[in-house]
Amino acid sequence: MSVPSETRQWVLSNKPTLLPTLSGPSPTFTNQTAPLPPLASDHLLLQTLYLSNDPAQRGWISANIDPSRLYTTPVEIGSPMNARGICKVLKSNAKGWEEGEMVLTYCGWSEYMVLEAAKCQRLPNLEGFDVGISQFLGALGGTGLTAWFGIKDVARAGPEDTVVVSGAAGATGSMVVQIAKHILGCKRVVGIAGGEAKCRWVKEHLGADACVDYKSQNFVDDLKKETEGFVEVYFDNVGGEILDLMLTRMKRYGRIAACGAVAEYNKDKTQGYGIKNWFEVISNRIEIKGFIVWDFLAQAEEAMKELVKATKQGKIKIDAGNETVVETGFEGVPETWMKLFEGGNRGKLITKLV
Asked: Is 197 helix (H, G, I), strand (E, B) or coil?
């Protein structure tokens, strides 16, 4: 193929207060074409192959968040949507980098880009390891590390603990279930997921002892039954009503790892659920700790070795079943991302550009 001189980009055109919109007079994103800069020294020309879709991206574009309170630089109006991806090197002007190599980087929602080689990470060698490269955006990437550090270091789960995991069929939750059950040896692991099919997968494929369907009209009673005697650890991916309910299911001195709040991301301050059982935290001395995976970058390499080792030993299942890969043209990138808020994925949601 000829070397591109311009690229299509999905840029942020309106910061949403509620659910992002993809059409109408004020769409959240606009598809634009921009020129590519010259290939300077120590830079790479890249083509995006896969994009990671993460609920956290919703916070990066929110109209309601004070930038000084955000853990990363927010996406500004007129800038490409930020995202991590797997890219192919089309042309190199950096020593030691070759055309055709695959890299991990923050490429954003752009077809092509010119980046410093120092901002790119070569994909690990897959020889003897039967997984697709897209797994490096999920189970063998930041998602897996989030699960590892969240359940092991933040929640400090161990063999004596019963663990509840919300979003158990999602990217992070599905890894938390497996790490808690098969690596940390927690005595009981209970998932929360939406729908019978997802709950069955969490139990039969991931190995949870039970999984409660939050879409069931009997959800509250079912959760109480599966947490009889209360639990030591809760890994929270959703916030909202489920977090509030789980405050009433924690043992005294229980630990909660606050990882996500997908139930709240598309609501403004007047619509947020609001915690009603906060006194439970005081009365039962419950520990709640938020975290970001970037807090643990110094330990990331060693943790990834442990995850790869556990996968090769069969303790962790990493296969096509724990990711939802959507093939689409570049025009379908925002629509695919929106599936995160529709429950349209099992495991990691990945965009594959075709």
From this structure: helix
Contacts of 92 (CB under 8 A, 6+ apart): 44, 45, 98, 99, 117
Q: How far is CA 44 from CA 31, 88, 90, in A?
A: 23, 10, 8
C-alpha span between 268 and 266 (Å, rounded): 7
Amino acid at 251: K
**pTM to 2 decimals?**
0.92
Are the beta carbons of 10 and 34 closer than 8 angstroms?
A: no
Tokens representing residue 343 in the block:
């429950």
Structure confidence at residue 128 (pLDDT): 65
How many angstroms separate the CA atoms of 143 and 40, rounded? Answer: 32
| pLDDT at residue 123 in the model | 87
pLDDT confidence of residue 126: 66
Neighbours of 4 (CB within 10 A): 15
DSSP string over 83-116: -EEEEEEEEE-STT--TT-EEEEE--SBSEEEEE
Record the tokens describing residue 303, joined without a space.
Answer: 């943790």
Of 178, 185, 230, 183, give the one whose Cα is nearest residue 205.
178
Taken in order 19, 21, 25, 31, the sign of the CA dihedral is positive
Whole-angstrom Cα distance, residue 165 to residue 208? Answer: 10
Res 124: pLDDT? 79
Residues of the chain with pLDDT under 70: 1, 126-128, 269-270, 272
| Residue 135 neighbours by CB under 8 Å, 6+ apart | 141, 318, 323, 348
For the CA atoms of 198, 86, 32, 332, the dihedral, rounded to the nearest 10 degrees, stands at: -30
Q: How far apart are CA 278 and CA 166, in angstroms?
A: 19
